[in-house]
Write a structure and sequence with these properties.
The complex is a heterodimer. Chain A is of the alpha/beta class. Chain A has 8 helices and 6 strands, in the order αααββαβαβαβαβα. The chains are: A alpha/beta, B alpha+beta.
């Protein structure tokens, strides 16, 4: 949408245009946010602007786990009580938040920042795989947990990593795939059901 | 409007990408409606009823509702998820390559039933094939056929003379084989065995073609010829081909290092 041509003051049009570029924001929402900020107290607008700049200035990738962080190494990698013999490999930083919410995992993480996707031309060299292999060299890590998403690309990435890591003599595990809690067998697809049967456990 | 608001179709999912918070944007290949794009609402939520049924490369029965721009998947039931493919990195990568070819070579809403059939048969064949590469070559040569680019393998495209059983030349620009007199300088050399393999693949069924056993050299030559032809038609590289090459390189390295 060309906001420049609208009869709006140029700085306003520019802000609308910037909001419009954000994911999930349509033209109307962009206008509403802009006019909200116009009326909001100046401190609020300034705080927003500074928060955005701080994200860009201060955030770096953790040199160990590749998670986004403002201090290198990140909080998890620095934590004295985390189990350093386990590394959980995830696709994106947001996946760490999801796993941390469970409170059930005490090991370390490694973020790949993507997933092998042949159709989009994304190969292993575009992911943080070399960094992962580097971390495994000192022999402290005994188990690698592959926690990529259970879809085609995630599975392909997990299989690729498995081939790569098995010869190193590590324990390589994959998150269980099966029925989500609160769902319904009737709507489950074959792949999920087959995996659920394969991974069944003694009750 | 006479078109119904909802319709049923079989479909193979060629491409799946994220749309908004939890929706999936699907590119589907259907038997009678050709390629269509549709949205599976909420497919990324863990408890979605659609999620697993609209996974990449699954063959499903779908009920779609016409939307303003994109149609919306309202119900979906998997017919075949090609399970053996999903446990094998090489096979699944081959399957992704087939899907990319179909996606790149087709326009939306153009019916091509034989091509749908070819894709379905090839995916089934990939599940048990000894040599995934052979399935890809079979698919490539028949894909060209169903799109109207069937390569001429019987007579020389320069002088029109029937080809003799001799090493010849293959020219993507002419769309087939040139004889030893017309070809030099214009086209890439083609060994007699490779020509025979191409002809055999072109005229046989998957069941007959699957009996073929190729030496690595011959297999590489046939692959080079067909890929060159597809690249010429498409005027660009097929992205997943690079990934197949990489996988093959690594598996060779691994067998070398373990032996």
């Amino acid at each position: 949408m060309d906001f420049e041509s609208l009869p709006t003051a140029q700085p306003v049009a520019r802000l609308i245009e910037e909001f419009h570029r954000l994911p999930g924001i349509g033209p109307k929402s962009a206008q509403r946010l802009t006019y909200y900020l116009l009326r909001a107290p100046e401190e609020q607008a300034r705080a927003l602007a500074q928060a955005i700049l701080a994200v860009k200035d201060k955030i770096v990738l953790c040199s160990q786990c590749q998670n986004i962080t403002d201090a290198d190494p990140c909080l998890i990698c620095r934590h004295p009580e985390r189990d350093r013999t386990q590394i959980c490999v995830v696709e994106e930083p947001l996946d760490i938040l999801a796993l941390e919410r469970t409170g059930g995992y005490k090991g370390l993480y490694h973020v790949l920042h993507g997933v092998i996707s042949p159709m989009d031309g994304v190969g292993p060299e575009d992911l943080k795989i070399r960094e992962l292999l580097e971390r495994l060299k000192d022999g402290e890590v005994q188990e690698v947990i592959l926690a990529t998403n259970p879809n085609l690309e995630g599975e392909a990435t997990a299989m690729y990593l498995q081939n790569l890591l098995k010869p190193l003599g590590l324990k390589v595990t994959r998150l269980a795939r099966g029925l989500p809690f609160g769902s319904d067998l009737e709507y489950a697809d074959e792949v999920t059901l087959t995996r659920a049967l394969e991974g069944r456990q003694e009750a | 409007m006479t078109t119904p608001k909802i319709y049923k179709t079989e479909a193979i999912v060629l491409k799946r990408s994220r749309l908004g918070e939890a929706d999936s944007l699907l590119t589907l290949y259907t038997p009678y409606l050709g390629k269509i794009r549709a949205v599976a609402k909420g497919a990324l939520r863990p408890k979605s009823k659609l999620g697993g049924h609209v996974e990449l490369l699954s063959h499903s029965q779908m009920l779609l509702a016409r939307g303003q721009n994109l149609d919306i998947v309202s119900q979906c039931q998997t017919l075949d998820s090609f399970l053996p493919l999903r446990d094998d990195l090489w096979r699944i990568s081959c399957a992704v390559y087939l899907a990319e070819l179909v996606d790149r070579f087709t326009e939306e809403h153009l019916e091509n039933y034989p091509l749908f059939r070819l894709l379905l048969d090839s995916l089934r064949w990939l599940c048990w094939a000894r040599d995934g590469g052979l399935v890809l070559r079979y698919f490539e040569i028949h894909l060209c056929h169903h799109l109207g680019y069937r390569p001429e393998l019987g007579r020389c495209l320069g002088c029109g003379a029937p080809l003799q059983p001799r090493p010849s030349f293959f020219s993507p620009a002419s769309g087939g084989v040139l004889c030893p007199r017309c070809g030099p300088g214009l086209a890439r050399p083609l060994s007699l065995n490779a020509l025979k393999v191409l002809r055999y693949l072109q005229r046989s069924s998957p069941a007959a073609a699957s009996k073929l056993k190729l030496t690595p050299e011959l297999s590489a030559e046939v692959e080079g010829v067909l890929r060159g032809y597809l690249r010429y038609l498409l005027e660009r590289e097929v992205k997943s081909a690079a990934w197949l090459d990489e996988l093959r390189r690594e598996s060779i390295q691994q067998t070398v290092s373990t032996s």
